[in-house]
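Tutorial sheet, problem 5. The two components below are modelled jointly, 997 residues in total.
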Amino acid sequence: MSASDKRPERDRPWLMRTYSGHTSAAASNELYRKNMEKGQTGLSVAFDLPTQTGYDADHPLAKGEVGKVGVPIAHIGDMDTLFKDIPLDRMNTSMTINATAPWLLALYVALAERRGVDPALLHGTTQNDIVKEYLSRGTYIFPPEPSMKLTVDTIAFAVKHLPKWNPINVCSYHLQEAGATPEQELAYALGAAQTVVDAVRDSGQITADELPKVFERISFFLNSGIRFVEEIGKVRAFSELWGHIGRKRYKIEDPAMTRFRYGVQVNSLGLTESQPENNVQRIVLEMLAVTLSKNARARAIQLPAWNEALGLPRAWDQQWALRMQQVLAYETDLLEYADILDGSPVIEAKVRDLKDRAVAELERVKLEGGMLKAVESGYVKRRLVQSQAERLRAIERGDVKVVGVNCFTESEPSLLAHGEGGDILKADPEAHARQVESLRVHRETRDAREVVAALDQLKLAAQNEENILPASIRAAHAGVTTGEWARVMRGVYGEYRAPTGVNVGARSSGDPAKIATLRQRVRETSEAIGRPLRMLVGKPGLDGHSNGAEQVAVKARDIGIEVVYEGIRLTPRQIAVAALEEGVHVIGLSVLSGSHLELTKDLVRELAETETQETPFVIGGIIPVEDETRLRELGVSEVFTPKDTELNEVMARVVDIVRRQHGLETLGGLT
Amino acid sequence: MDWRNFEDERVYRAIAQGKRPAVAAALNLIDDRRPESRRDVEKLFAALDAYENPRRSHVVGVTGPPGTGKSSLASALAECWLGEGLRVGILAIDPSSPFSGGALLGDRLRMTRSDPDERLFIRSLSSRGEKGGLTPNAWLMSRVLLSGFDRVVIETVGVGQSEIDIAHVADSTCLVIQPGSGDTIQFLKAGIMEIPDILAVNKADLGQMARTTAEELRLALPEIRDENAWKIPVETVSAAHHKGIERLAAAVQAHFEWLDTGNRLEDRRRQAEARWGVKRLRERFGEYGLEKGGGEDGMRERWMATSGSPFEKLERFGETIEQSLK
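Model answer (structure tokens):
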């Protein structure tokens, strides 16, 4: 007998995934099958923004967004294509989908039924965590209350009919990206999970003896940063606190039911653009933190590509990330041992400390009235912003070292970054048109009467507060589209359009002398043009990052401008009509999604159509230098980019635009 | 087409049809403080008066303390009317900053859809320092909208209970009430009953609490023996869940029909005009000037007894006060 035959029994490795999806269902299917040939053991589907926010490709808001950050899925036919030649009963599929989670799950279940696969055999996850959408990710649709109801529906349905499905993945991932410290991650994720379990328990949809099953079905999605000892402590603290909550709060005795189950994507925001090859060791170390503890090991891992900070990764870059996992799982001896950190006094002390601080923060959240209230009141957001600011200051001061960024910055020329780039994944410009066309064909070939009946039933189910899944699955079979499903839901539940954090009480900062000068300029300009200077501020497109627009709106208000704040997710037509109806003198748009050229062309057309073409407009956002000239040619009066950090100077230029438009002399900068 | 050319007959026809660019230009004009623009405003009003308004148009005020869901309710009412095929114009008023005079106007958020409805027009306004929940030009603007839309909704600032001005501008005023807010009942008991024509207890999804509040309100309302008098209805609604909105709209309609019998509607509108005029005179001459001119009530009565356009009257009354101040 050779030595290799006597190798000790190994644990089964975690699921290995790559977060991916782009262009179309067919293109994504091809990518998935290629990845599986390379040894990937699970799928992680990225959906495009229209699918995430409930619009079909032919909706005006979808323009420029179809197939961009993920795959467009409009109906059961798209779902079928996405999983072509992939056996649903044997695949473990994770879907990053939230506001429209019940619908995408309904499509998946309907597809299984159509293929003769018992839905009870389906494995996988719907992210379905709405709390963090309000805090950081921004793809919510409905107000918090109906959103929670839909989450509850999905969980209750899964517990009864999809015993192996994880209907929710409570995310601390995005909290860390928004600035959360480890104890904040622990407190807010566990707080959100408790809120969800409470809601399911109190919904009347499950019996008391089903509660342990509900608890067991709650899984988590974590981030892992570079301070890896702390991260080891964090995952162990998560595990212990979750078990404690199960036993104490919900009186669940069976330890199998109170296990902390989680997936991980390691930190993407911490990857650096300079000396990008160093990201490889960062990713590996971050992966170690969530795999070393056998008792708190991740169930599924997806790693970013080393060059993600530079642009879209190539297939080879993604393969490299997968190989990192495979080397750890199959080459090293990690999976042959019990928990190698048990009994370490250092780790134990770290875990205790994190738990204490997390429990204290959880108590604080309770004082705010629970997690949902603490989110609605803005408490959690304020805490995150504070932590983020502290972290950035520490990097600026050099207290936190980032190799290749604030230390050891000299480098030999990189040989990797400039290698062959033959198969870089580029966004396909035809993707939108093709998806629109396939949607048209789909609508023409389905049974229209059945669609109407299914939509009626869906509306009734929503109005009567029944579980939404059965009616959604019927609608999926009938060929209803994502946009149609969401339209019915919007009609019943309304749309959540929080002022996205514009703090009306907030006062903008800056040199008081400059603000006084600006107020004087606004007053004089208003007098000269006859009425108060009015400005429209808003965000066209689907990306939900509204901080920039909000800061501009508050600043403009503080210098005396009447600001019509339009918020996020606007069509060019909405902006043009609002500009006309509101009689504004200037329009300020914020565009971060990269669709600025397309949106500008559309807006120019809509302004002409509404006879508002005289109203000048400015754009702020992440805009490449080469596009600035093009934007000006199209008719944009000013382009502001991240280098324009002084908001007072930005406003001085905006006021000058209005002055020029009305034949008044311009006043120039403030210094 | 220059919508700012108020010599052009077509501009007025477009306003009366509720055409966006024409209505927007007219509202901009009303806001314009330059003397040459005042002449155009007078022209505008004379012309609009000359247009026979075939609509049974109706100005509805929506008011109430902060946090009661005024915006959502105004938006739900608008949806309901649009659904009936009516044209709706909205004036949404937000407070201005006492420090800078600037304002953040965010009410459109709740009302707009990705493909804006041709029959819906929204103008957001700042209170511009005016107390009482409105903006100085609210009455003039509501007159413009009245000529082009079937329903005109004015949503007040919502700073508290001092917002009585809306009752003097709107034909029908709907006071929105939060369930469980005892202060509203105190406010009703205090006898300021001229404000609301309809009471709407919002957030009916709160269940028992909403029903209790509605019951308390009904008990707090004065008993009305006169058969012809208006009896204030109390409706429980949920703007967030779109429940009870049709009933509320029916109550608003019933009030309008009540106003429309006899001279009530005309009286209200003449009162509204007189209040607008006296308010402008107070801005110009102060309390003392108003006393000299015969006191607020006296001036209002004289205003209503005088014929002519509001601007002619404003000028004539102003001259009289100026004379008496000499």
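Marking note: Chain A touches chain B through 46 residues (CB under 8 Å). Full credit if you identified this.
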